[in-house]
Model the fold of this input.
Amino acid sequence: MTAPPWPRPDPVLTRPAAAGRVRIAVRAALLLSVLAVLLPLLLLVRAVERPLAGLRRPVSGYIVQGFCRAGTAIAGLHLTVRGAPMAQPGAVVANHASWLDIFVLNARHRIVFVSKSEVSGWPVIGFLARLVGTLFIRRDAREAQVQAIALEARLLAGQQLVFFPEGTSTDGLRVLPFKSTLFQAFFAPTLAPMLHVQPVTVIYHAPGGADAAFYGWYGEMDFAPHAAQVFAARRGGRVELIYHTPLRVADFNNRKALATEAERTVRAAMPPDRQSLPD
Done:
């Protein structure tokens, strides 16, 4: 993965010891077993849903949520929640710390991810992203109108979207400035009067004795060694999801004002010792 320079060096991910390798094998087997059961069911349900419901996912969203709940538990993460997912149509915007965000956010809320097109081709991560119905877009200003149309179609179909305005994953200890580009789609005349954007703060807490950025996937870290570190851990950590009051799109003059308020809300809920860290 490619990311901006970080104020801390990438961690050295060493090969797990024998006991860690056993835990990796057991957890990987469990995850694959769940996938083996749910994937055929998901494909069957979607084959029926497409001609009947179009972009809506009245049943398959529950299957994806079940898989993500199982994945979160298998990874050893204890999930706690404050607030509640909004019922209004619109989108969730959250800080982005790890590939684990896919599991964590979907475990609590039936949503559809918006991601850069490159992710579709990534090993494992790309497969997981496609599995949960991610909308892939090219982050190119020349395609802004095409992106807005794709987002509008999903929103009008009743999907609740989720995207990460930071534009990259982090070490989980800071919130990067939010990019406002994707917020523009919410201001379409057919959407703005009815849409809300719900900021969500995702806070990972490392297992006891581990580095505070244990779950962060950032810099030039490869997926496989990081996933091995997570699955090899003897003790799991925990993750908090904080659902904030939804922001009514019509209350903001433009995308930058909406993005700024969403960022302020997400950042303010980070622990005090993380709020002061440099971006």
About this structure: Residues 18-53 form the longest helix (36 residues). The chain has eight helices and eight strands. The chain has one domain: 18-275.
